[in-house]
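Today's session is about reading a structure prediction critically. Students often jump straight to the picture, but the first step is always the sequence itself: look for stretches that repeat, for charged clusters, for runs of hydrophobic residues. Only then move on to the predicted structure, which in these notes is written as discrete structure tokens rather than atom positions. Here is the chain we will use throughout the hour.
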Amino acid sequence: MSAPSLLAAARAQARRDLRLVWRRRGDAAQPLLFALMVVALFPLAVGADPAHLARIAPGVIWVAVLLAGLLTLDSLYRGDLEDGSLEQMLLAPVPLGWLIGVRVAVHWATSALPMLLLVPVLAELLFLPGELLPLLMVSLLVGTPLLSLLGAVVAALTVGIRRSGMLLALLALPLFLPVLVFGAGSVMAAAQGLPWAGAVLLMAAGLVLALVLAPLAAAAAIRIALT
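Below is the predicted structure for this chain, in token form.
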């Protein structure tokens, strides 16, 4: 029997992951509700002055998206480890890094992408000026895949540790902070009339590097954890 092509393996992996997400669609909605609650409660903590909320809106939305993404990282490989699917991925006749790349793509499409669709609503809650919304969306569109790829590496490093939620957050936050700074900073710079394109381009360069290196690093970490 000939080995499956990379495209066929990607389709099979994506179908399986999407089916599992659909079965646990209640859990998949938790990051959305978390981000919505954070943004909705923020005006109660700092006051409801529209001008003040508009100034801090990019940072608040970026922090909400980042923290909501942390909620899903521990489940990235946990289910596969418990049912033995992770060992089968190691034995598959296609590179493990390729399968992990597909897994990260599905994770982004089912967790971060719905959150991006919610961002205009969050921006309205915080009185973000309409002219800044496209740039905020672009920064999130570039930054959230980078967060997913970095999170996949950190989750792979802790996959063999039981109850690794706190350790996962401690390892992921230092890697996520530069993305947060560049993402929110680009929108705040644009609001002040300062150059903002450099921050977005730096995130884009980081995304290109992560697309190549992160699946390979995650695959190596999983092999170490399971041997």
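Discussion point for the tutorial: The longest helix spans residues 96-125.
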